[in-house]
Amino acid sequence: MKRRTHENIVSSAKLRMQELIDEILRHNWLYYVTARPEISDHEYDFMLKELMELEKKFPELARQDSPTNKVGATEKKSNQIKHEIPLLSLDNTYSPEELMAFDNRVRSAVGNKNFKYVVEPKIDGVAVALLYLDGQFKFAATRGDGFAGEDVSSNVTTIKELPLKIKRIKGVTDGALHLRGEVYISRERFAKLSEQMTEEGSVPFANPRNTAAGTLKLMAREEVKRRELKIFIHSFAGRDSDYFKFMMKLEKLGMPVVPNRILYDSAEKILTNLKRKEEEKRSYLFDTDGLVIKVDSYRLRRELGEKARSPRWAIAYKFSPETAESKLLAIELQVGRTGVITPVAKFEPVHLSGTTVSSATLHNEDEIKRLDIRVGDYVVVQKAGEIIPQIISVKPAEKRNPPFVMPNKCPVCFSLLEKEEGKIKWKCTGVNCIAAVRAKILHFGSRKAMEIDGLGESMVDELVSSGLVKNISDLYFLSADQLISLPRMAEKSAKNLLKAIAASKEKSLERFIFALGISGIGETTARDLANEFGSLKALREASIEDLIQVSEIGEILAKSVYDFMREPAAVDLLDKLHSCGLKACIEEKKREDVNGPLLGKKVVVTGSIPGLSRTEAEEAVRKMGGSIQSSVSGKTNLLVLGNEPGSKYSDALKRGIEIMEYGRFLELWNSHSNR
């Protein structure tokens, strides 16, 4: 009987281990390869911990290919790079007791030797390995399965803070320098990208980490640049040096190393600062999910060694994710500037990550169905990137209300809603929907568009609700008497607003194109369009084929611009703005010399040109017959190389693009301008 009972226990353990292995491997794939995790780090760690305990209890059942013996997940692609030094993971701990147990293990292994710990933020990003040879950047690769990862060199070189060449110093940067880092997106940039994706009808990424992971895998380099990846270097290999001192050396060379590193001589002192460290993370510009605690001494690290998937000399102390529970009061619909309908959850106010929140976007109808969220239910809320509230789960009420049904009419103008084939977002069909008009005007007057001071949310609400402004062009026909008639509008405020509106008539073509709010057209693309066509008239007349010739504009964006310029409402708007005397609408830039030495060439300028500002250098290119591009692409013909060039230089080298040093460029310009 006892033998049979033991056999049953072993059989049950074997089944449970198989279940855990299958689940962990699936979640590895979702996290490392698709960048769409379905569970929290906390839940994943507990599954892994359960598997490790079962393997320890039943060693005869432990498998060689168990996820406890490897890190990450393998993605079968041709552009794989083998890691000369494997990328290990870190063991995680969630309690002070586990942290002290780690300290006891370290001290037991090294004896009575004195040593220090380095404590630093655990960046919540995407792990990458970088190789520098004699100070020159060679490649970057993702973690992959720890032994080989995907080549992401092209996308990593878009990171402005990462130097592609550093000073060669013996013992520091000479020979092969292996660096490890975390690629991330700042909280501020994540918030802006989420807002843009929502406006365009796309489902935003869940958090900054997923955004960075998805961005690293993109093929469109211009889009990668637009998203503005960043990196922190947090470790190195191939150097016989203590960690803290070597990181200071890298920092002095301009390497973006992980900030806020602190030395402690005991684990007890670390414990006394845990609460303060957890509160500190709210002030960071980047996401962290805990602290990394590592032995500083290189000699002791070698003595302690590594396990199959993690070093024995370091551990991650994970902060518990801050969440709040609240009752769902309503699901409201918001109308964006393109007419896109976005459902928003309204719940009882709760305090979360330093602020009070009472609403969170539900993105689209499909998300509502996926969550099966209903008024009266209780929702669990957390902040993505410590900024954007999001609902991560739903706790159904005992007596549930009926499921939410998407209405067929706009909640503001009552026009019919429609959903294009293959799209997930509903749109309002009303041409003059007040909500869409309000959003368009706010965007038009924003800081990076036409920069109309005083045209904030409350002012736009007043102008639209009063009927004074029904579309963008109405702004330029406002009078002081009309504005003074509005509630709480003083004469001085009215004059200041009119002055700001008048000043906006002088804004550049690139700002104006961005201000129009054409789907998919951001600041960089607006600049490229302005540089290529030189006038609004030329842009309005451009064919799809003409538009595709512009740097980094493919068929989808070209069609978006082409269709916008031919929409009856847009045609009417542009005609009215032309009659108002906007400089961007009436000015036509003509090249002074169509026979210049750069005739027909698409040119990128990188670095500083002695004697010329960037604006003057780009104007010189235009006067010599060339057109300016903001980034290197397959359409670039020439790169003008100045002092201290950025990543555009390495891009041009990789693509085999002609490179002209600034001395030769200045010779051409002097010769051309003195004719």
Provide mean pLDDT, rounded: 85
Strand composition percent: 15-25%
Task: State the CATH architecture of the largest domain.
Answer: 2-Layer Sandwich
Which CATH top level class of the largest domain fits?
Alpha Beta
- CA-to-CA gap between the ends? 105 Å
Structural class from helices and strands?
Answer: alpha+beta
Please, how many domains? 6
Number of helices: 26
Can you offer a commentary on this structure?
The chain is an alpha+beta fold and 675 residues long. The chain is 38% helix and 19% strand. β17 (417-418) and β18 form a beta hairpin. The chain starts with a helix and ends with a helix.
What attributes does this structure have?
single chain, D-amino Acid Aminotransferase, Chain A, domain 1, 5-stranded mixed sheet
Topology of helices and strands:
Elements: H1 2-34, H2 41-57, E1 80-82, E2 92-93, H3 96-110, E3 117-123, E4 126-133, E5 136-142, E6 148-150, H4 153-156, E7 176-184, H5 187-199, H6 208-216, H7 221-227, E8 230-237, H8 243-252, E9 262-264, H9 267-272, H10 274-280, E10 288-295, H11 298-304, E11 314-318, E12 324-335, E13 341-352, E14 355-361, H12 365-371, E15 378-384, E16 388-395, E17 417-418, E18 427-428, H13 434-444, H14 457-465, H15 480-484, H16 491-503, H17 509-515, H18 523-533, H19 536-541, H20 544-548, H21 555-564, H22 568-579, H23 583-586, E19 602-606, H24 614-623, E20 627-628, E21 638-641, H25 647-655, E22 658-661, H26 662-673
Parallel strand pairs: 2-11, 19-20, 19-21, 21-22
Antiparallel strand pairs: 1-6, 3-9, 3-10, 4-5, 4-7, 7-8, 10-11, 12-13, 12-15, 13-14, 15-16, 17-18
Helix pairs in contact: 1-2, 13-14, 17-18
